[in-house]
Amino acid sequence: MANSSLLSITLCLLLLCHSCLAARQSRQQDQQNECRMQNLSPLEPARRLQHEAGATEFWDQNVDQMQCAGQGILGTMLPGCPETYQSLQQSQEGRQAQGSRDQHQKVRQFRQGDIIALPAGVAHWSYNNGNDQLVLVVVHDTSNNDNQLDQNLRRFFLAGNPQQQQQAGSFLGVERAGNNIFQGFDTQILAEAFGVSTDTARKLQNENDRRGNIVRAKEGLQMIRPQRFDEEEERETRYNGLEETLCTMRFGENIADSERADVYSARGGWISTLNSHNLRILRDLQLSAERGFLYKNALVAPHWNINAHSVIYIIRGNGRVQIVGNSNRPAYDGEVRQGQLLIVPQNFAVVKQAGNQGLEWISFKTNDVAKISPLAGRTSVIRAMPEEVLMNAYQISRDEARRLKYNREEVTILSPRSSSQGQGRAIV
């Protein structure tokens, strides 16, 4: 639960954690014992963090009542979010004489009494465009099926410099929050991935930003938004009526051919994916796979796995990999070579760059329909946000916001930039 005043905006990743079946069964047994309580009482916030334009209050998820309920409660200023599907609209730049138009994913209006459900792991931002204070109740279910981490709530921020919560983490079951996720990446790598200057890349990292994760939009936000509330029907999975049996089920499919690639770049490389949509047995195994190849110095755009862990095996070649969690330093930053195995936990951001031998890998993911959310490129969460959200979140100019959004038109695979534009640390 949280209180926010004036114009507020925040960017973060909601991490709804998941764990293995054995752990879930163990927790269920523990909960049966923990729920034998005779008295219940109202709970007060155990900690409050103040931000530039609001505050966040935390409840202790380790108290008996929370353990009985099987969930933790976290208060934060999150009134709405952009959805993950692409619904591009153009903003009217009334204050700009340039005549250029912004593109971003659909923005939804909400009002008192609304219930907003967000899929696990998606990025979102929110903005209070009213004249009154905004109070929200936010519930994180750390025992849902999309959570492949432990029972501690983790928040991954895309912008800002969130205050350290070491004290909160020690007794609230909330892992200590570091800086935004970009700060763990190398500045040159970010500049290469977004096709921007290193100065702009440093602004993404918000190293000297002390505003917290709820900030004030000084002139408000001007963007296209719906005038009426939309009602969307839930999409239900439909089958064709012919159920595949074990005897007729296919058990394999080749994904090593670049002609089969789901993503292809003439200068960058290719990626093929295999999931339960094209191999039915993967639904029972709850696994999927990805195979990719990068040419020299090409990158896989920084991204995170929304609903799965990833086990990466290097087939051949060499390269550099950075893995960043919700700390102010990378969880891994180093070279990889043929025969090595690397684990990328759910919601940890990762970037791969090929060395002079190129880089080929195969990834096994712990979800039969594993999804990624790119940080850079044409389908990225940065591209999907309005310019003015980026301007206020990162304290950058409109031109810098546009370069962040539009300098990379590629999808997932980013071809190497020319030497005149600057290269990151060489991989040899």
TrEMBL record:
Provide the residue span(s) of the region labelled Disordered. Answer: 86-106
Write the record's keywords in alphabetical order, separated by commas.
Disulfide bond, Seed storage protein, Signal, Storage protein
Q: Which residues form the Cupin type-1 domain?
A: 38-202, 253-402
Biased composition (Polar residues) is annotated at 86-100
PROSITE patterns reported in the protein's UniProt record: 11S_SEED_STORAGE
Source superkingdom = Eukaryota
Query: Pfam families, per this entry?
Result: Cupin_1
Question: Which Gene Ontology molecular-function terms are recorded?
Answer: nutrient reservoir activity
Q: Give the signal peptide range.
A: 1-22
Q: What does this protein do?
A: Seed storage protein.
Family membership: Belongs to the 11S seed storage protein (globulins) family.
The name of this protein is Cupin type-1 domain-containing protein
Q: In the record, what lineage is assigned to the organism producing the protein?
A: Eukaryota, Viridiplantae, Streptophyta, Embryophyta, Tracheophyta
